[in-house]
Design a protein that fits this description.
alpha/beta, Conserved hypothetical protein from pyrococcus furiosus pfu- 392566-001, ParB domain, 2 domains, 5-stranded mixed sheet, two-stranded antiparallel ribbon, ParB_dimer_C, chromosome partition, ParB/Sulfiredoxin_sf
């Protein structure tokens, strides 16, 4: 028979294994007395109440894994909030009597501030720093609009900072261990390629193929080729397979092209593409003349690029 400490440990593990819902608890439950167990064993995030809290008394989550909040999407949400109000309350923890910290719902909180709201509905829960980190990471991973690098970084933080193994992490987020491993491998790619993946210049399928190449220099050359020639994932996989088998398709291909960009221009092309979030193409001649092409996908995309140009 397990002793009492083992029972508490098992109980806690079972609760965490049920995902975000178990971590957050049931919003319909009333407050439970914190004196029923020793302080160290109280790991459940008890709902104190649903309340309206002054926006100025709420601070962002320092464990927030989301790296970017798109201005246009925030503006759209703010417009919706002005008309319909907050449909889903945010979740916070109490720091002091009148100060709170976001557990989940930072995007709604930002949009509410933008909409001019003074108060926002919120569930108030108890949580320590470790629980805050795990809840914030899992809550964000379950969203569909995270880019693959943000997901990979969240997985890495859960493993490193929450002391989880890949199998345990897979159980937490409802993914196979192989899926978790594929995301984590993306973090082995050089920063230029990670930025390209984050900005949508390549897909996760392209990135997964590039990870199989051992040389960073070859990875970067392949990345440039994918972006410049708009290669499909299948063609990229074929190129990678040829390279692994000892063939040199990139060198053979370059002989049939006009003068290719040298290393510095190639790096500049990557940097500009990353900065503007679109496939910049540079043409350069021996005389030092050339052109820079900045494509855009829509009027909104053009305005976004113009805004970037105006800030420099």
């Amino acid at each position: 028979m397990p002793d009492n400490s083992e029972k508490k440990t098992l109980k806690r593990r079972n609760a965490l294994g049920k995902g975000l819902g178990a971590l957050l608890g049931d919003p319909k439950k009333t407050e439970t007395a914190a004196t029923t167990e020793p302080a160290e064993a109280v790991s459940v995030n008890i709902v104190e109440k649903l309340d309206e809290i002054s926006i100025d008394h709420i601070e962002r989550n320092p464990f927030q894994p989301r790296l970017e909040f798109k201005d246009e999407a925030l503006k759209e949400l703010a417009d919706s909030i002005r008309v319909q109000g907050i449909i889903q309350p945010i979740t916070v923890r109490r720091l002091t009597e009148n100060q709170f910290q976001i557990i989940s719902g930072e995007r709604r909180w930002r949009a509410s501030k933008m909409a001019g709201l003074e108060k926002i509905p919120a569930y108030i829960r108890g949580a320590n720093d470790a629980q805050m980190l795990e809840m914030a990471l899992i809550e964000n991973i379950q969203r569909e609009d995270l880019n693959p690098i943000e997901v990979a970084i969240s997985y890495q933080r859960l493993i490193a900072e929450c002391d989880l193994k890949q199998e345990e992490l897979g159980d937490r987020v409802g993914k196979k261990r192989s899926t978790v491993a594929n995301y984590l491998r993306l973090l082995k790619l050089p920063p230029e390629i990670q930025t390209g993946l984050r900005n949508g210049m390549i897909t996760m399928g392209h990135a997964r193929a590039l990870v199989n190449v051992n040389s960073i220099e070859v990875q970067l050359t392949l990345f440039d080729t994918i972006v410049k020639d708009e290669l499909s994932v299948r063609k990229t996989e074929n190129l990678v397979r040829d390279i692994i088998q000892g063939k040199d398709p990139l060198t053979a291909k370059s002989k049939n092209k006009n003068e290719p960009l040298d290393f510095e221009f190639s790096r500049l092309q990557r940097d500009l593409s990353s900065h503007f979030g679109t496939q910049i193409k540079i043409k350069n001649s021996d005389e030092g003349k050339g052109e820079i092409k900045i494509p855009y996908q829509s009027v909104e995309d053009l305005n976004r690029i113009l805004d970037i140009l105006k800030t420099h």
